[in-house]
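Hello forum,

I keep getting stuck at the same step: I have a sequence, I want structure tokens, and every attempt I make locally crashes halfway through. Rather than fight my setup again tonight, could one of you with a working pipeline run this one for me? It's a single chain of 66 residues.
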Amino acid sequence: MPLFWKHYKSETTQFIESLKQQDPKLEARQREGRNLLWDRPIDHVAETDFKDARVPQQPYVYQTKA
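Reply #2:
Ran it on my machine without issues. Output:
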């Protein structure tokens, strides 16, 4: 590593770190929001029912069946 090497932090990273220092509970609130919207339990029975009920698409959609 050269002598003039300095660890670079972008302005965005510095901004996020300053936000986290100002509000220590910020990351916990972000995780709660993520759990509320994205991390949901998967209903495996419903998922297999959806996969089994799927109807394959025709090779050419607009062609009428003869």
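The helical segments are 11-22, 26-37, 44-52. If your local run keeps crashing, start a new thread with the error log.
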